[in-house]
Structure to design on (873 residues):
């Protein structure tokens, strides 16, 4: 009973915080001048522009997904299953773009490829014109999105490869070459992970606001933001978001039909020590060179440009003076948000993995649906629902931002912890239950201790996403509650390049802080165990 | 039992942390201001106000993409539950829209007395200060090409595909287009817009971006706000600022003052009035003239740097801001269509 109650409370809170604002604006969009009307939807897709925006969104999302898979899966394999030199360093470098807000990458590439950018200075103006034309538009937006989201595919590929049962590969190696083993055994086994990565990349690209907006590529999520901000028209803004909602539902159905059963059927996990490794042999220099070039282009260049542009003490001093409050708020809000998301994710992940209630898939669908919606739409919903005198204590406080994080990112914590629970044998909890331990005892003595590594990973992922969020925060932040990404966005108008670059570098550093803390804690723990 | 208690403390505690940490004691000595002026210029003014009065300023700033409409629209959305005391508009048109919607409150600041009558509302719903001109920013390459002196550069064949303009659905660009409609009449203004489009004028997201695009030679010229242009020049960018249509018989240059608006039902009205007094003071105008926004003071006798023109030296486009505000709303569907929404 206590277990069911806990899970019901979690679902109720998710619906109240996340789904209710979206339902609220949907219902409002069905009324015109107080009368029920489908007029707003009747005007949808009457202009060619809307079809073009939808086409742009789908093309961008599809192309980003395809390219990240083509690059990310081989890279994940190289970093996990081969003897590639410096593979750990490469893996860490490739992950950095994920923790940087994607529009910062767009800024860095503008400094690099714009008509007066570094490339134009090094080569010539004509070359700068070519690179600039490529950057502003589909090609540039696609390039930045690929560099920003490639780490997701790499991480998931690496994670799933570590779960492949080495016995299967060893058996296959008796008869086949490594190429054949990878093609026939390994890749099919990690197919659910690849599909999950594709789903996440597709959804994140579909809802992306910052990069297409910066690089002037018109997509639907920008349209929704514009309709709200330029015209303050909740109804048309909601209507504009509906096609994305429909696409999300289609993606969810596809996932449900084709992927769900496979997604959480993990093989016996093999540690890296027992993993069967594929030696690169004579091809090692070739792969080394290819990976180095890729890491240079996708990671070193944008980071180097930001550092080069901000290389002045006064810029950093100015950046700190102007943004110290925002830095602190960003850290606090992201920490509180990540903690809430881990709590939600813990119970929803448990619900999903253990099928603890009849409608566990429904709760998962709500979380994924909210994750897929553009942040601007959730932001509009939150304003619509909470901007009343009675709920001012939420609307005028950081509570509204935290609600936004919960609404948008619950799926992240849920899926990470669902994967964690899939590794934990049911028998442990069942044994506790047979021994007479109630739900809370099992929770604190069995589930939480066993899932603590997954919880830490979920917290880190959620922290990063909350910290880099701009879509929701920009829409709802109360006076004097701006976060660092918002401050960078609002300061961009007429601020010197070195100040913006310095702020971007600070943003990267504060995002890396918890990773550094985790590394330090891990090192201390190892040292302690060695001494012990 | 112990674990259950811990669980409830953690679960309920974490769930409510977002409220608890965010809903601290309300500071009564504060003022909430929504700002459409660039944050980089307005924030130092608020810092000085805080230092001089001890009143804490809580601000919400516009982004470049939604310049002067984002927070204004938020004010409209919060009409029944106002969060702001003051709106610092970066042009008077939106302030007039707020007046028409009954969101603003009358206030005759003592510091408004030195402001020329055509830059303030006779009923006291808004008061202008520190103005910007709509100027041509031209790249070095553009000057070699030919020196543009008029907004008709946008429709000149010689400059085909060389010009960029901020999205006319937003900010001062909307006001500028609406002003052209009131001065020329609908037919001539629509013809100008049509020819501008036919001549390959591109639309950027904002004046800041237009400036950046001209600075980077992506385009050769643009009509932007004078603060964007002066700021770029002061940062050593290879661009020039030209006040358009200054010759005899020409249209003149549109000058748009900032505007202060007191919000009806705001949480701190007294502090709101104090902030408005501060913003309208000659000292603030001096600061904004010397800042990189290089804004033109409206009070007489305010000291300015050499590169800031005085209001008396400019041939002004003669506009009635109330009429421009009405026209702005009237042409919104046309502008949406022009942009392709």
């Amino acid at each position: 009973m206590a277990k069911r109650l806990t899970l019901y409370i979690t679902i109720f809170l998710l619906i109240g915080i996340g789904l209710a604002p979206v339902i609220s604006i949907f219902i409002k969009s069905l009324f015109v001048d107080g009368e029920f009307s489908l007029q707003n939807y009747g005007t949808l897709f009457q202009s060619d522009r809307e079809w073009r925006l939808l086409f742009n969104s789908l093309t961008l999302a599809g192309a980003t997904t395809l390219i990240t898979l083509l690059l990310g899966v081989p890279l994940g394999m190289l970093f996990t299953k081969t003897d590639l030199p410096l593979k750990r360093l490469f893996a860490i470098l490739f992950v950095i773009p994920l923790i940087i807000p994607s529009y910062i990458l767009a800024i860095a590439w503008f400094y690099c490829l714009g008509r007066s950018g570094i490339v134009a200075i090094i080569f010539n103006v004509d070359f700068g014109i070519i690179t600039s034309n490529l950057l502003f538009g589909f090609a540039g937006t696609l390039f930045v999105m690929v560099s920003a989201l490639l780490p997701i595919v790499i991480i998931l590929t690496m994670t799933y490869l570590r779960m492949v049962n080495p016995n299967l590969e060893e058996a296959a190696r008796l008869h086949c070459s490594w190429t054949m083993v990878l093609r026939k055994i390994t890749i099919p086994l990690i197919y659910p992970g690849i599909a999950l990565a594709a789903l996440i990349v597709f959804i994140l690209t579909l809802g992306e606001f910052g990069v297409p907006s910066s690089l002037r590529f018109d997509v639907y999520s920008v349209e929704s933001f514009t309709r709200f901000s330029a015209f303050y028209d909740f109804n048309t803004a909601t209507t504009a978001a509906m096609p994305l909602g429909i696409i999300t539902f289609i993606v969810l159905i596809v996932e449900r039909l084709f992927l769900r059963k496979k997604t959480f059927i993990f093989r016996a996990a093999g540690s890296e020590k027992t993993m069967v490794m594929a030696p690169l042999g004579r091809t090692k220099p070739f792969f080394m060179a290819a990976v180095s070039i890729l890491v240079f282009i996708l990671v070193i260049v944008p980071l180097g440009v930001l550092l080069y542009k901000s290389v002045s003490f006064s810029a950093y001093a100015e950046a700190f003076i102007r943004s110290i409050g925002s830095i602190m708020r960003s850290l606090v809000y992201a920490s509180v948000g990540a903690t809430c998301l881990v709590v939600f994710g813990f119970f929803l992940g448990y619900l999903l993995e253990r099928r603890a209630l009849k409608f566990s898939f429904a709760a998962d669908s709500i979380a994924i649906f909210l994750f897929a919606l553009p942040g601007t739409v959730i932001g509009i919903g939150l304003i619509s629902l909470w901007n009343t005198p009675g709920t001012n204590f939420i609307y005028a406080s950081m509570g509204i931002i935290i609600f936004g994080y919960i609404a948008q990112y619950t799926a992240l914590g849920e899926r990470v912890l669902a994967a964690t629970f899939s590794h934990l044998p049911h028998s442990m909890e069942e044994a506790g239950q047979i021994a007479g331990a109630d739900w809370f005892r099992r929770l604190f003595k069995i589930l939480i201790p066993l899932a603590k590594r997954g919880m830490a990973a979920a917290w880190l992922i959620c922290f990063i996403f909350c910290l880099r969020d701009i879509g929701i925060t920009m829409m709802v932040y109360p006076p004097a509650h701006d976060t660092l990404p918002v401050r960078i966005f609002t300061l961009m108008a007429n601020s010197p390049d070195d100040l913006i670059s310095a702020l971007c570098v600070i943003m990267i550093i504060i995002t890396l802080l918890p990773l550094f803390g985790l590394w330090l804690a891990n090192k201390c723990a190892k040292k302690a165990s060695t001494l012990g | 039992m112990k674990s259950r208690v811990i669980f409830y403390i953690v679960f309920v505690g974490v769930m409510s942390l977002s409220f608890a940490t965010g809903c601290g004691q309300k500071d009564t000595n504060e003022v909430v201001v929504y700002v459409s002026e660039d944050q980089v210029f307005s924030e130092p003014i608020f810092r000085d106000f805080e230092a001089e009065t001890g009143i804490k300023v809580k601000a919400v700033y516009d982004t470049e993409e939604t310049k002067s409409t984002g927070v204004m629209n938020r004010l409209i959305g919060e009409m029944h539950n106002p969060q702001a005391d003051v709106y610092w508009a970066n042009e008077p048109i939106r302030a007039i829209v707020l007046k028409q919607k009954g969101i603003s409150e009358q206030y005759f600041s003592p510091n408004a007395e030195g402001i020329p009558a055509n830059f303030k509302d006779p009923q006291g719903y808004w008061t202008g200060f520190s103005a910007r001109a709509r100027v041509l920013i031209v790249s070095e390459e553009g000057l070699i090409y030919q020196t543009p002196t008029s907004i008709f550069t946008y429709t000149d064949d010689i400059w085909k595909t060389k010009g960029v303009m901020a999205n006319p659905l937003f900010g001062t660009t909307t006001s500028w287009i609406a002003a052209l409609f009131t001065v020329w009449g609908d037919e001539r203004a629509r013809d100008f817009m049509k020819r501008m489009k036919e001549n390959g004028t591109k639309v950027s997201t904002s004046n800041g971006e237009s400036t950046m695009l001209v600075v980077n030679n992506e385009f050769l010229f643009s009509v932007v706000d004078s603060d964007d242009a002066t700021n770029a020049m002061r940062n050593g960018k290879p661009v020039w600022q030209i006040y358009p249509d200054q010759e005899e018989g020409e249209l003149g240059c549109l000058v748009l003052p900032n505007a202060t608006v007191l919000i009806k039902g705001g949480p701190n009205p007294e502090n709101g009035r104090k902030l408005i007094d501060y913003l309208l003071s000659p000292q603030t105008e001096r600061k904004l003239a010397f800042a990189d926004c290089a804004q033109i003071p409206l009070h007489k006798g305010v000291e300015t740097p050499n590169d800031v023109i005085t209001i008396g030296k400019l041939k002004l486009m003669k506009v009635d801001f109330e009429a421009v505000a009405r026209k702005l709303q009237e042409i919104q569907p046309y502008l949406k269509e022009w942009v392709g929404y």
